[in-house]
Design brief:
single chain; 7-stranded mixed sheet; mainly beta; 4-stranded antiparallel sheet
């Protein structure tokens, strides 16, 4: 029933910006944390940024100062503003929701490619 649909990925030159958006549906998300993960071929999936329903944020050290996560609790969306993009940011980015009681869900992913 829970669905997460990502959008906003694409190709951008180094130094450019992209804004990813995730639309969540099928549940109440008032007791959830939402976040963005990324993974490329042969690499471990890693947390990029997360935000709780109350607005507490956490970022990977590699993206601090460049990425900003936000959520709209009325619209059930979570966005990731990515600035000063680097080639090493190239990955598939996945939206994630983690409910307080345990279940977690994933979107299908959206490709972000940063050219040198």
């Amino acid at each position: 029933q829970v669905q997460l649909v990502e959008s906003g990925g694409g190709l951008v030159q180094a130094g450019g910006s992209l804004r990813l958006s995730c639309a969540a549906s099928g549940s109440s998300f008032s007791n959830s944390a939402m976040g963005w993960y990324r993974q490329g071929p042969g690499k471990q999936r890693e947390l990029v940024a997360a935000i709780t329903s109350s607005g507490s944020r956490n970022y990977a050290e590699s993206v601090k100062g460049r990425f900003t996560i936000s959520r709209d609790n009325a619209k059930n969306t979570v966005d990731l503003q990515m600035n000063s993009l680097k080639p090493e940011d190239t990955d598939v980015y996945y939206c994630n929701v983690q409910f307080a009681w345990g279940p977690r869900y994933w979107g299908k992913g959206t490709q972000v490619t940063v050219s040198a």
